[in-house]
């Protein structure tokens, strides 16, 4: 099979298309022919060596495809079934992948391969943030950074469906249009701000009668963190779920006191889909919303396996909207 390996820690140029032996499913594993693989920031962190990884390694952990083989005790799925995954299948930038049967998600009829590959990681992330980390309720004001990104578009739709008013940040007018189409009431183009740390909280408080927002969902990190904290209302919550602009330096807990007894958490998806039941429940809600037409999934760009480095450059350069996919 063909696969994309990171041959050493580094930038996108360390990604190489290689030929590897076809994998054989072990106990409780499915052998899946990959239809599309999701490209995510965590892939770039692993490629760069920010997260400890063996090198070389096949990149990727999300995708969709068709079951073509099963190991012993891999019950619940048959050859020919369409499945998707957000974890449980390391090395998803490949033509074939081994998937832990307990992490396999059944793809409903009517959901395309592209949508099935685009939804799991970002959709499950958006779902746990609005339903479990800081549950969004009707009448709340919410700030979502990178509102035209894959998670941002899904977060906005899910929060609006719960009755919240959503304010987003984006970089361009085109991205503003996408964010508004997803349901954002107000959109701030941060590229036009001279000082985001000072100006964004002023704008947010101006939009909320001086109070600030109940919750900030921040997947950007270093460049937005201070503005996020200053945009919260008293006893509000900041969910720092990513670091697209780099990690946030250590924080003095007294800043949370000074900001109004606010809450700060650094959640990760793995802790919200630990059990099979929780994973399946979240995924079922998301796929149901897609099938019913109440949740839209935007695929912003697709690349061939051989162009994985270009996909990483586009993602890290914030040149994308929605989801980026690799299609073998």
Task: Describe the secondary structure blueprint for this structure.
Layout: E1 2-6, E2 15-19, E3 29-39, H1 41-48, E4 57-58, E5 63-70, E6 82-85, E7 96-100, E8 105-106, H2 113-118, H3 120-133, E9 141-144, H4 150-161, E10 165-170, H5 173-181, E11 186-189, H6 196-207, E12 213-218, H7 225-230, E13 232-240, H8 254-258, E14 263-265, H9 276-292, E15 299-304, H10 308-316, E16 323-327
Parallel strand pairs: 9-10, 9-12, 10-11, 12-13, 13-14, 15-16
Antiparallel strand pairs: 1-2, 1-4, 3-5, 3-7, 3-16, 5-6, 6-8
Helix pairs in contact: 3-4, 3-9
Please describe what this structure looks like:
With 328 residues, this protein is of the alpha/beta class. It folds into 2 domains: 2-119 and 297-327, Quinone Oxidoreductase, Chain A, domain 1; 125-269, 3-Layer(aba) Sandwich (Rossmann fold). The protein has helices at residues 41-48, 113-118, 120-133, 150-161, 173-181, 196-207, 225-230, 254-258, 276-292, 308-316, and strands spanning 2-6, 15-19, 29-39, 57-58, 63-70, 82-85, 96-100, 105-106, 141-144, 165-170, 186-189, 213-218, 232-240, 263-265, 299-304, 323-327. Strands 3, 5, 6, 7, 8, 15 and 16 form a 7-stranded mixed β-sheet that branches. A 6-stranded parallel β-sheet has the order 11-10-9-12-13-14, sandwiched between helices. Strand 9 (141-144), helix 4 (150-161) and strand 10 form a beta-alpha-beta unit. Helix 3 (120-133) crosses helix 4 and helix 3 packs across helix 9. The radius of gyration is 20 Å and the shape is globular.
């Amino acid at each position: 099979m063909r696969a994309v390996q990171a041959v050493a820690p580094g930038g996108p140029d360390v990604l190489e298309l290689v030929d590897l032996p076809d994998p054989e499913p072990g106990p409780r594993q499915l052998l899946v022919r990959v239809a599309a693989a999701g490209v995510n920031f965590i892939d770039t962190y692993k490629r760069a060596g920010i997260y400890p990884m063996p090198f070389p390694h096949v990149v990727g952990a999300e995708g969709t495809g068709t079951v073509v083989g099963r190991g012993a005790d891999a019950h619940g799925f048959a050859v020919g079934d369409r499945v998707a995954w957000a974890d449980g299948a390391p090395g998803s930038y490949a033509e074939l992948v081994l998937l832990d049967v307990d992490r396999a998600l059944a793809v409903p009829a009517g959901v395309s391969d592209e949508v099935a590959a685009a939804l799991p990681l970002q959709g499950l992330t958006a779902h746990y943030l609005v339903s479990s980390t800081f549950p969004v309720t009707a009448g709340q004001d919410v700030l979502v950074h990178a509102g035209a990104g894959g998670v941002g578009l899904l977060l906005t739709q899910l929060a609006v469906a719960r009755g919240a008013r959503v304010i987003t940040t984006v970089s361009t007018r085109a991205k503003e249009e996408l964010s508004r189409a997803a349901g954002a009431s107000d959109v701030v183009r941060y590229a036009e701000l001279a000082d985001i740390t000072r100006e964004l909280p002023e704008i947010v408080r101006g939009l909320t009668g001086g109070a600030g927002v109940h919750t900030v969902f921040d997947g950007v990190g270093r460049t937005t963190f201070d503005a996020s904290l200053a945009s919260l209302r008293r006893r509000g919550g900041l969910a720092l779920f990513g670091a697209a602009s780099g990690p946030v330096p250590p924080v003095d807990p007294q800043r949370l006191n000074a900001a109004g007894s606010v809450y700060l958490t650094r959640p990760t998806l793995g802790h919200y889909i630990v059990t099979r039941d929780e994973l399946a429940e979240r995924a079922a809600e998301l796929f149901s919303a897609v099938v019913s037409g109440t949740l839209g999934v935007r695929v912003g760009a697709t690349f061939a396996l051989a162009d994985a480095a270009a996909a990483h450059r586009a993602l890290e350069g914030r040149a994308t909207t929605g989801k980026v996919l690799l299609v073998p």
